[in-house]
Amino acid sequence: MIGLLWDMVRGRRGQFVLTLILAALATAAAVASPAYLGTVEEQIVAGHLAAASTVERTVELGATVPRLDVGFEQSATPRLAGPGLTQVFSAEITMIPAGPEKVPPADSRRVGYRQDLCDHVVVVAGRCLMGAMEVVVNERAATGHGVRLGDALDLNAGAYIGGEKIYRPSGDPARLTVVGIVRARDSTEPYWCGTVADAAGDDKGGVPFYVSRATLNAIDHPDEEQHIAAYFGPDGITVASLPALRAWLAAAGVQQDGSPALGTRLPDLLAEIEADVAQARATAPVAALPLAALSWALVVFAAAAAARARRQELGVVALRGVTGARRGWFAAAETALAVLVGAPIGYLTVAVLSGRYADPLMLAAAAVTAAGALVVAVAAQLRSAGRPVADLLRETDRRSGHWRSLTLEILVVVLAVVSVAQVQARGGTLSGVALLAPPLVMLAVGLLAARLVGPLAARIAGLALHRGRLVTALSATRLARQPTGRRLLALLVVAFGLLGFAATATDVSAATVDRGADLAAGAPTVLTVRDTTRSALLAATRAVDPDGKFAMAAVPVPAMSEGAPPALAVDSARLPAVAIWHPDYAALPLHDLAARLQAVPESETIRLRGTTLHVELTLGDPTTVATTLYAVLAPDSGGPAVALGFGALVAGRHTYEAHDPSCAAGCRLVALKVGITTAVGPDCRLTVHRLDADGTPVDLARHWEAAPAAKAVATADGLALTLPSTGRSNAGTVRPLDLTVPMPVLSTGPLPPDGAFGLFDGFAATAAVAAPLRAVPGVGQRGALVDLERADLLSTDSGAVDEGQVWLAAGAPATVESDLAAHGLTVVSRHTVSDERAARGRRGAPLALRFFLVAGALAALLGAAGTVVVAAASTDAYGTLRTQGVPRRVTARADAATALGIVAAGVVAGLLAALVAWATVGLFLPSLSIDAPLPSLDPLWMVLAAGAALAVIAVAAQLAIRLRASRRKARPGVS
Q1: Where are the transmembrane segments (predicted)?
Q2: Over pLDDT 90: what percentage of the chain?
Q3: Distance, CA of 842 to CA of 848 (rounded, Å)
Q4: Residues facing residue 225 across a β-bridge
Q5: How far is CA 504 from CA 423, 429, 500, 828, 958, in A?
Q6: From its phi and psi, is residue 264 left (phi > 0), alpha (psi between -120 and 50) or beta?
Q7: What is the largest CA-CA distance in the chain?
Q8: What ranges make up the beta strands (E) of 476-611?
Q9: How many CB atoms lie within 10 A of CB 645?
Q10: DSSP states of 646-670 as a string?
């Protein structure tokens, strides 16, 4: 038997190799999905970790403990001993210069210890810590505080006095020697995690002065802030470790005996990763299942085609009295051997390409595919071998099988309708029968096309014969009489349909990513600046780009309440030149929208110049609590606004004086703030008769805005104020309205009923929606836009901006960052729309949808293999005609025309199948659909290109096989 099998393989080497390649392709197609999915999951984790903030990647415990107390450290260390975590212990105190009894917060210093500090810094000057009472200073902090190498710092631990807003000494002084100036080796490494670490050395929460643990213990201080921050290594978070991390977080987060709670946003990060992984796992089978089904169908098709080509041979064997069992082995052994050899080849090919060799899902997919291919191939061969001898010797199929075929086609159509209904009923959720909706729709279209091609081909054959077109008549007649071509057509429809559906899905996914990135970024490039003011940001940006062609200042507006929409204040006149704007963001053009933000005319502001301010006022009906008066002034230099105090007010008419150099070069009066009681009591009534700077009076006869229920009226005697005692924090604030109200706002939704819009200072201004928006660049689907200069003029705070933005157009000069730095802005980060697209492209759905294109390409490759199999297994249908005088070139052209006709019909019907599948399934899938224009024409050209390549392959295969057959000498069959 082994020798006979070997002779069979040698006798039909071409057929054996084709079946082997087909089995390898089927296995590779099935294994590709879990291999790609495993890679996608790794990329999802890596992408989230790369984009996550420090807080999201770390877990932290902190507490304020007495000096030399190690209880917190001993209890917190085991709580943070999680899987894959590396711990960093730190402790810090606030110190002030020794000597003065009162020190303002600006002169305080954060001094602290951080575990293994010297391993993570670069020494700019001097050395790192070695001995006692030594300190190293961050490079930026050393510059800001005027600290030099070798300086001796006499410091005291400081205690903050909240009522006086000062620090007082709280221990014996200590002398620290500066032995080094350092900077972070890599400010992005996870070592700099936790709330007390700041690689930039910023005073806002950071620790710019570092000492050893022994030095910190030696400094006299009542208590210290201790923290243990734990971060993950490069492989600390994987898809496989997510359940263990969840369980550890749940256990570590349980508070017992008043122990501090975990400080982390890690659960949010894990939830985002799990959601993306789940979305990828739900999306990939949409393409993987039809690809696997197509692979099996092609194996069946190849086995059936091979069996059909050996009909007469099997019939002769049956006539010689060979038993049914031996005929079955004779028919199936060759195909079974090809499948068993080809399946490992397909698996190893994908394993080598993906670098994943022992993935359980890949092994399972390979085993199921190989077993299924083996079963269906052997079954097809046994079914053919078991037919009666008369059927085996016939060249055409019996008509009795057509009814069974029709029943199967009706069943497929019904299942397709049911699956589509399930998809729409479940809102795009794919599970159960709905998971098979796309391939069932494509298969239904393919079977209908195959059903129609027979009568249509017969009609074409008749017309061609009447018109003398022999080649067309021969090819159409062959397609009408033999079912092999029609089955190949159904297979090609599914292949091209899957390619078209995959191309459409990836096209829409790319559009989703691009549009989402455009909306999130807001502009081609966004620079983040820190430690500036709104006026300085506006001035610097306008100085760098005086014509308003490529740069725009922008500042996020903090929400007044949790439910308030996010808002962005922009230099609106520059918005059309800089922002990425899609027409569907609003009904009006962007230029019109920007003009509406500037539509209200401005009036003159109250300007002051001088170092001494005088105010003459009359206080009547004084409250039981001492009343104070402040003038909030915004310097023209762009520095932060200052609150200049005139001291306590007394009843009657008096003149008050205040000194400050902030207005020496000029400033703007932002607001007057009267300190009144917040308890229920009598109204505070006062009249401001005169306000001057170095003797130059200001005009008080203008419109002033006060808090609700308060009154500010300009009279002949001055500005009369009636301020009720309420619980509002801005009850005593009045401001000159430099702009007429209401303030125009562009918003995606209505404002509160009273028309209030929250400003930078946390107070509300009267506003009105100038035009509705559907989306706000840089904010999202819900938000609002206001003019930055207008909002700044209406705000009464200091104008300080922790993180402002400068939006840049695509054509911005390369020197813009250095130009901004020359005008006093510190750029701390640069984010482009390309960065945003890359980050969004690493999420679950976009990554998984890329497999659609891989599946589509594999489907087209399987279709090409199917055409080659048909060409190899087909018999010489025109041999009798050639003996009757028909030239060989005519029959060769007929073979080519048949192949071209099948491929052309497959392309047209495949595009129709893809369109039907997309219209009935794709548009309802949340991971695929977006509020955007219809897909581009790229999928159409992709399918047409694949069809052209497939046509070339089909014709080449037909001609090559016919040429080889014509040159091959006749050989006796296997007996």
Answers
A1: 287-307, 328-349, 361-382, 403-423, 488-505, 851-875, 896-920, 940-961
A2: 20
A3: 10
A4: 64, 92
A5: 18, 19, 6, 40, 32
A6: beta
A7: 132
A8: 525-533, 551-557, 567-570, 607-608
A9: 15
A10: EEEE-SEEEEEEEE-GGGTT-EEEE
Q: What secondary structure, in 3-state letters, does 8-74 show?
A: HHHHCHHHHHHHHHHHHHHHHHHHHHHHHHHHHHHHHHHHHHHHCCHHHHEEEEEEEEECCCCHHHH
What's the pLDDT band for 500 if we cut at 50, 70, 90?
confident
Q: Are 747 and 548 a contacting pair, CB within 8 Å?
A: no
Of the pLDDT bands very low, low, confident and very high (cuts 50, 70, 90), residue 137 is very high
The pair of three-digit structure tokens given for residue 687, joined into one six-digit string: 């009249």
Residue 587 token pair = 């009904």
How many beta carbons lie within 10 A of that of residue 69, not counting itself? 14
Most confident of the following: 69-73, 570-574, 722-726: 570-574
* Distance of alpha carbon 294 from alpha carbon 436, whole angstroms: 12
Q: What distances in angstroms separate CA 181 from CA 114, 146, 149, 155, 214, one per listed residue?
A: 16, 12, 7, 18, 20
| Contact indicator for 685, 620 with CB cutoff of 8 Å | yes
Q: Determine the Cα–Cα distance for residues 355 and 897; give it in Å rounded to an integer.
A: 43
What is the per-residue pLDDT across 84-106, written as a single tens digit (0 to 9) for each? 788 999 999 999 999 888 887 77
DSSP 8-state assignment for residue 387: S
**Adjacent-strand bridge partners of 212:** none
Omega prior to 742 cis, within 30 of 0 = yes
In this predicted structure, the answer to whether residue 37 has a pLDDT above a threshold of 70 is: yes
Residues in contact with 663: Cβ distance below 8 Å, sequence separation at least 6, in sequence order: 608, 609, 610, 611, 613, 633, 635, 693
Indicate the pairing of strand 134-138 with strand 174-184: parallel
Reported as a pLDDT band with limits 50, 70 and 90, residue 175 is: very high
Between strands 764-772 and 743-747, the pairing is parallel
User: Who's near 900: CB < 8 A, 6+ residues apart?
Assistant: 951, 954, 955
Tokens representing 186 are: 């890599």
224 in Cβ contact with 93 (< 8 Å): yes
Torsion of CA 269, 273, 278, 284, to 10 degrees: 160
- The pLDDT tens digits of the residues spanning 601-647 come to 556 678 888 889 999 999 886 554 457 888 988 888 777 888 888 88
Secondary structure in 3-state letters for 294-336? HHHHHHHHHHHHHHHHCHHHHHHHHHCCCCHHHHHHHHHHHHH
Q: What letter represents residue 652's amino acid?
A: G
Q: What is the CA radius of gyration of the chain?
A: 40
- Cα–Cα dist 939/947, whole Å: 12
> Residue 692: beta bridge partners?
614, 697
Q: What phi, psi does 280 have (nearest 5°)?
A: -65, -45
At residue 108, the pLDDT reads: 86
pLDDT for 933? 47
The residues with which 809 forms a beta bridge, in sequence order, are: none
Helix, strand, coil share of the chain (percent; to 5): 50, 20, 30
In which band, very low, low, confident or very high, does the pLDDT at 969 lie, cut at 50, 70 and 90?
very low
Tokens of 96: 């002030």
pLDDT tens digits, one per residue of 730-768: 778 888 876 666 889 999 988 877 677 888 887 777 888
Quote the tokens at residue 345: 């080849």
The pTM (predicted TM-score) of the whole model is: 0.73
Segment among 640-644, 845-849, 920-924 with least mean pLDDT: 920-924
Rounded CA-CA distance 431/419 in Å is: 10
Instruction: Say whether pLDDT at 553 is over 90.
Output: yes
